[in-house]
């Protein structure tokens, strides 16, 4: 088994970054089913900076809650686990949350019984309001199985996806082109209006 994901240290770092910048985050979570928000919610005072999370696990909910086009979700060449869908989720949840400055969306197939070729695939998209919502970061990762037991591996993959989302927001590019995760870069993230 590989090393279990570390989700609490990046959650604390992100909370400190949000606090220092005065920014607010909203989430659209599919494969993590609210675990990103739940991890952040363990940090006292995070309610000042975490607006909430839309847990959009099923296609009908993605469409009903965030207006994702069913044609995108049902398209065999795109589908709910894709860069396109993840971008749309990040933009939609930010549009629907006027007090948020940043959004993060995550989709993936964490197994068991994932479609062929998609086992462990996770997409993340980050959007900012500047002044209109725009995608500033996106990634696709393949998470290997952590354990021979499918249920254990799924839980660990969910935690790994949470860690990816947290770190993607921490490393959010700024207008200067530098990430905001390092100590020297934290001051480049200007406070929200």
Fold and architecture overview:
By secondary structure, the protein is α/β, with parallel strands linked by helices. The protein contains 6 helices and 5 strands; from the N terminus they run H-E-H-E-H-H-H-E-E-E-H. It has helices at residues 8-21, 35-40, 59-66, 70-74, 83-95, 150-170; strands at residues 25-29, 50-55, 102-108, 121-129, 133-142. Strand 4 and strand 5 (133-142) form a beta hairpin. Helix 1 (8-21) packs parallel to helix 6.
Topology:
Blueprint: H1 8-21, E1 25-29, H2 35-40, E2 50-55, H3 59-66, H4 70-74, H5 83-95, E3 102-108, E4 121-129, E5 133-142, H6 150-170
CATH first level: which class? Alpha Beta
Q: Count the strands?
A: 5
Q: What is the correct CATH architecture?
A: Alpha-Beta Complex
Low-pLDDT residue spans:
176-193
Largest sheet: 5 strands, mixed
pLDDT average, as an integer? 87
Radius of gyration: 16 Å
State the shape. globular
Strand content: 15-25%
Briefly characterize the structure.
With 193 residues, the protein is of the alpha/beta class.
Give the key terms:
single chain, 193 residues, alpha/beta, Maf protein, 5-stranded mixed sheet, 5 strands
């Amino acid at each position: 088994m590989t090393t279990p994901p570390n989700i609490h240290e990046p959650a604390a770092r992100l909370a400190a970054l949000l606090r220092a910048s005065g920014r607010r985050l909203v989430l659209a979570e599919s494969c993590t089913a609210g675990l990103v928000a739940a991890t952040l919610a363990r940090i006292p005072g995070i309610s000042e900076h975490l607006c909430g999370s839309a847990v959009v696990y099923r296609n009908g909910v993605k469409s009903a809650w965030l207006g994702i086009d069913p044609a995108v979700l049902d398209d065999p060449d795109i589908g709910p686990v894709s860069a396109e869908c993840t971008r749309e989720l990040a933009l939609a949840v930010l549009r629907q949350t006027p007090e948020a400055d940043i959004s993060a969306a995550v989709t993936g197939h964490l197994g068991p019984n994932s479609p062929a070729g998609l086992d462990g695939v996770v997409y993340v998209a980050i959007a900012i309001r500047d002044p209109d919502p725009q995608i500033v970061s996106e990634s696709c990762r393949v998470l290997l199985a952590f354990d021979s037991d499918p249920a254990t591996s799924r839980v660990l993959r969910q935690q790994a996806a949470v860690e990816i989302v947290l770190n993607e927001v921490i490393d959010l590019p700024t207008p200067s082109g530098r990430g905001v995760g390092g100590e020297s870069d934290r001051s480049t993230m200007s406070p929200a209006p």
